Amino acid sequence: MEKERERERKEEFDASEIEYVSYGGEHHLPLIMNLVDQELSEPYSIFTYRYFVYLWPQLSFLAFHKGKCVGTVVCKMGDHRNSTFRGYIAMLVVIKPYRGRGIATELVTRSIQVMMESGCEEVTLEAEVTNKGALALYGRLGFIRAKRLFRYYLNGVDAFRLKLLFPQPELHPFLPMMADRDATQMHDDHSPTSEEFSELHRNL
Fold first, then answer.
1. Whose CB has fewer CB within 10 Å in the chain, the N or C terminal residue?
2. In whole angstroms, how far apart are CA 152 and each of 50, 61, 158, 160, 161?
């Protein structure tokens, strides 16, 4: 019971203290596995993790606070039915004391930006219909509920398949991909800002 209370306790920190890094190799794999095994209902084998992080390391990111891994996102991309180049968000985790502070939004938007820059036309994922936090987060990022999947998870819970469609370049020559930091998922000179991402989705 005491351990559960400790996990639920909100951590006080400044957003600038969170460090985001892309997957850097085998030393990051146990950190990702530990977070996912703790927080997600679906069990995954080490082969599943390696499938994602070895083939698409550029799509996986980790969040650290003072050296402690507090969040991660794991994704892939590829051809879907030989017609669409699609990104897919497989796992997203932020530990409970750090939720509600924009870390999940930052993780997801970093992956989405890489997918977009790699030529993806859309991004999909599944989320439990009971996971209101995740559904709200993805809704703020512009995802729509494309389909309901009955008893999708091993625990018998239904899922929504969520989809984000990228605007066509000829219609939107400048495509920002960072979400509003107040939401609860590397910037360089060519990377769009969070305000620009939010403005895009207000206009879609």
1. N
2. 23, 26, 5, 9, 10
Q: Please give the CATH architecture assigned to the domain spanning 15-165.
A: 3-Layer(aba) Sandwich (3.40)
**CB atoms inside a 10 Å sphere around CB 114:** 21
Instruction: Look up residue 113 and give its amino acid.
Output: Q
- The single-letter DSSP state of residue 97 is G
pTM: 0.77
CA 88 to chain centre: 9
What string of pLDDT tens digits covers the 204 residues of the chain?
Answer: 555 555 556 778 888 999 999 999 999 999 999 999 998 878 899 999 999 999 999 999 999 999 999 999 999 999 998 889 999 999 999 999 999 999 999 999 999 999 999 999 999 999 999 999 999 999 999 999 999 999 999 889 999 999 999 986 554 444 444 444 333 333 333 333 444 434 433 333
